[in-house]
Amino acid sequence: MKPKRILLDFFRATWYFYLLSLCFHLISNLINVFYPKVLGSFTDKLQQGGLTHDLIIHYSVLLLLIGAGAVLFNGIAMYFIMYVGRKFEFNVRGGLFQHFTGMGERFYSKNGVGKLLSYFMNDVTAVRESISMGFNATTNAAMLIISAVTMMIISGIPVYLIAASVFPLLLIPFIVVYLGPIIRKRSMEVQEALGTMTETAEEQFGGIRVTKKFAVEPIMNERFGKTVEQIRRNQLRLVRVSSFFQALIPLLGTIALIIALALGGYLTITQHVSLGNFVALTLYVRMMMNPLQQIGNVINSIQRSRASLERLNALLSQQPDIVENDGAKAIDLSHADIKIENLTFTYNPDSAPVLQDINVHIKSGMTLGIIGRTGSGKTTLMKLLLRTYDPAPGTIRYGDTDVRDLTLESLRTQVAYVPQDGFLFSTTIRENIAFYKRDSALSDVETAAQQAQIYSNVVDLPDRFETRLGERGLTLSGGQRQRTSLARGLIKNAPVIILDDSVSAVDAVTEKDIIASIQKERHQKTTIIIAHRISAIKHADEIIVLDGGVIVQRGTHDQLLHEEEGLYAALHAIQEEGSLHATGTSHS
Ligand SMILES: Nc1ncnc2c1ncn2[C@@H]1O[C@H](COP(=O)(O)OP(=O)(O)OP(=O)(O)O)[C@@H](O)[C@H]1O
């Protein structure tokens, strides 16, 4: 993939706006540049004693027209640039969002939500501001300088006087070249510190309930304070160099003015330059100072935003780690067996495998139970089935098709995955359940809710299925959230469903009802249930026991119970004892 160059692509698509703006800037400056000349001629008339009432009115009207014309055309030029700047923001934000949604889990585990938000907000705005402001100020200044110098020459001001007065201004590019990279580096540090702060804030607001329950607000305040302090330090470092830079530009302007006054004054006294031309010269030099100062600001802001632009280009050039093969096909998984053969997987090449030599044949329509200690690789195995991470070629096949040769859409629409902590959106319960198909009939939503045993809870809520949930579904209890997420998986009625510890937060009676309803509804449909409680999987056609990434046992519930030395029987004994204690029937 070619590296992304968003600015170049954008300019290619919108160059005519810039051209239009350039034309209006040109008109505005051509009008504006007459202002010193008119004043110069006014001064000459005054000196020669030829000023009449009519002439005063004439000059006043002329100056008014010049001012109004310049402002009007400058305003139009600015409008075009601001318009196109907002378009840039809109395009890039849309593109970024689309790009981010295509990225895989590995990308999100590296980039926190706060960081991504910071790219959206700070970086895009920084680039937009610098291109809008940059274009306006640079074209304005360039045109003004060119037209001012031309006008001075036409007015008969000696070239050596113009050259001497304008010379200090020519030093600006050298200062820019020297200070620019320093500003850019320091600005990058500020942007990074801002990203860290957004990330910390996002995480801390997200975890505020935990913070409060542990009464650790002071620690959190201190941690957040450190990130803010880092921003302050970085910003001060940036301000030191950028304010020095910004102060230098007007200083050079002032030196130019002093030369114009001193040398111009001398030449006026010695009759080499008319008083009118002397007034015009000082006004022209004064006139150039503001745009030059703006250019200083612009160059500063361009230096700062180059860091943002580089980051945005780099981000948009990143390829998702999971990509569809060229010949990927969509196949119907309704009757496809899932074959896992000699599957070994590691998240990082340097670390030990998380799964080792896994072999499972999941016949179409069967129920597979997976149990194992925490961290034994159960979820990882499911992520590979969904191709959230890439398994080695040939190790996972649906029917006869390698999972890598399936289109991602066909895979993920036909395999429903219900995680343990399903994220709920801050919208209605109905929309959360009908997530994959927003226009599902209410009756389908209700049926799924019944299967997930959440129906009776929902109908007790004031707006039933139209009840809006708080952020991340926090209006509901943990068990209710889990069952809503389960309903979201069940409504798909997909050929394959994976329940990844999806009933861990419900009581034993509700779990039994959910399992019974799943058994009924998913008869003849492939169902994979991961659980820590044996009660949730004991009905499965086959159960595999994972330990340390390896299948250590497999069979039906009864077969596994007979392997008395096995992990399964041990887990069973512990859980049975626990439930006997819980129901008060223990004899010990
Ligand atoms: N994105 C990741 N990057 C690196 N290592 C990971 C990643 N996700 C999981 N792991 C590691 O892989 C191992 C298996 O994790 P996995 O989530 O598959 O276990 P699990 O059996 O589902 O656990 P649990 O029952 O607690 O959900 C763990 O040691 C975990 O630390």
What does this structure look like?
The chain is of the alpha/beta class and 588 residues long. It has two domains: 6-317, Up-down Bundle (ABC transporter transmembrane region fold); 338-419 and 495-583, P-loop containing nucleotide triphosphate hydrolases (Rossmann fold, 3-Layer(aba) Sandwich), CATH 3.40.50. Helices cover 63% and strands 9% of the residues. It has helices at residues 6-32, 34-48, 53-102, 105-110, 113-154, 159-166, 172-206, 208-213, 217-269, 275-317, 378-385, 408-414, 429-433, 442-451, 455-459, 478-490, 508-521, 557-562, 567-583; strands at 338-345, 355-362, 367-372, 396-398, 401-402, 415-418, 496-500, 526-530, 542-547, 550-555. The strands form two sheets. A six-stranded mixed beta sheet has the order 6-7-8-3-9-10, sandwiched between helices. A four-stranded antiparallel beta sheet has the order 2-1-4-5, covered by helices on one side. Helix 17 links the parallel strand 7 and strand 8 (526-530). Helix 2 (34-48) packs antiparallel against helix 10 and helix 7 runs antiparallel to helix 9 (217-269). The protein starts with 5 loop residues before the first helix and ends in a 5-residue tail after the last helix. The protein binds adenosine-5'-triphosphate.
